[in-house]
Each structure stands twice: as structure tokens, then as C-alpha cells.
Amino acid sequence: MPEHRPRRTILSVDDHELVRVGLRQVIGQHFADRFHVAEAHNLEQALRFLDERADEVFLLLLDLNLGDTRGLAGLRLLGQRHPRLPIAVVSGSNDERVRDEVRAHGAVGYFCKTGDTDDLKGLLDTIERAATGTDGALADAPAGPHDALARSRRLRPGIRLTDRQVQVLELILGGLDNQAIATETGLALGSVKNCVSTVFLAFNVRSRAELIGLFS
Predict the structure, then answer these.
(1) In CATH terms, is domain 9-131 a member of 3.40.50.2300?
(2) Nearest alpha-carbon partner for 14 in 48, 50, 38
(3) How much is the pTM?
(4) Ribosomal protein as a keyword (predicted)?
(5) What is the pLDDT of residues 77-97, one digit of tens each?
């Protein structure tokens, strides 16, 4: 059998070279040569790297605003393509609403580029936890929404949801109401209500609180 090699690569995805260099230096100063930092300057390059070398990566550091993606779109796509890969967002914004949305979409952390001591310590702690996690996932991090379908199947074997219903389930677990889900997905409000009713029926629950309680 081939020898198991621990993952030791951090993939830094940012379109500003100074940020990538800064992150590489900070990681090198605190962890010496324990980890290798690979870099991508846009989402396409990051996805191409992961297609070839995802088995080496234990943590991805992601800027939300890249040359080829804006907002949560990149985080969503990475979560869909690589649901077991922990992603920490490193952003120039310190907006609490953005922090909440990022965590609701499965990120294991949100850290500001301004150099705040708490954010820096949190980032270093996240790297350490990710490096000692199991199968590429943080050992003590809450499961992200992109794990919703896997968790639902463990709760109820044989459950069947469409991709759209899984997406709505993820957003419900992220705390969004029907109107917010309609805005997020582009669905009509009536279609969202139908999806929510189907999800409730699948899990035999009558309210959001009851559904969220199944996953807590």
C-alpha cells in the first residue's frame, strides 16, 4: 500500500500580490517549513489547481472579490466542487453582515486584512486546527451548509431532495427567511414557499426551528 502523506498545502486565493506575499510571510514566520503555501490570483486558477492537487490542500484562504468573481459566488462554487475542503475567507471588509453570510455558507472563519491582532490570531489558530483535522476537515468546526445533504441522509437514510431543494435547505439552515431565499436564488417567492414545504415534509417538521434543531 502507498504511504499516506499528510496534507500540508495552504492555497491562498487573492488577486493582490502584496496580500499573497504578506500571508505567505506570516505563515512562514509562525509555522516555519511545516506548510507549503500555494497561490492563485483568481477563482479559475484556484479551481484548476484543485482539479490537479486537491489531495495536498488542507485549507483554502479566499478573498471574496477576485477578478472573475464577486461576493459569495466563489465561496459557493468552491463549496460545491470541494465540500470537504475547509475554506477561510480573508477579506478587506469588516462588515458583520458579510461575516454572518460567509459562515452561513460554510466557511470555517472570516478574517480581515487590516492586520487586527484578533483576526491574525484567529487565522493562525484556524490553520493549526485545519492541519490537525481529519480528512481535510476541521475537527472542531461546525459543519457548513454545503454538508447539508450528507447530514440529511444520515438523519434519514434514503431521503431524496433535488439540487434546488438542497440549496433551499442550506439557506434555511443559514437563517434566511423566504424573501431572502428568493433574493439569493432568483426564484419567485411562491416557488421558494413550495420548496420550503417540500423540505419540511421530507423531514416531517412543521417549522424552521424544528428543522434547524435536527441539524444542531
Answers:
(1) yes
(2) 38
(3) 0.62
(4) no
(5) 898 888 889 999 998 888 778
Number of H helices, E strands in the chain: 10, 5
Contacts of 57 by beta carbon, 8 Å cutoff, 6+ apart: 7, 9, 10, 11, 38, 50, 85, 136
Contact yes or no for 183/190 (Cβ under 8 A):
no
Residue 209 C-alpha cell reads as: 426551528
Q: Is the pLDDT of residue 100 over 90?
A: no
DSSP string, 21-74: HHHHHHHHHHHTTS-EEEEESSHHHHHHHHHHHGGGEEEEEE-S-BTTB-TTHH
In angstroms, the CA 123 to CA 59 distance is 11
Measure the CA angle with vertex 43, ends 42 and 45; round to 5°: 70
Domain boundaries, the chain: 9-131, 145-205
End-to-end C-alpha distance for the chain, whole angstroms? 38
Amino acid symbol at 13:
V
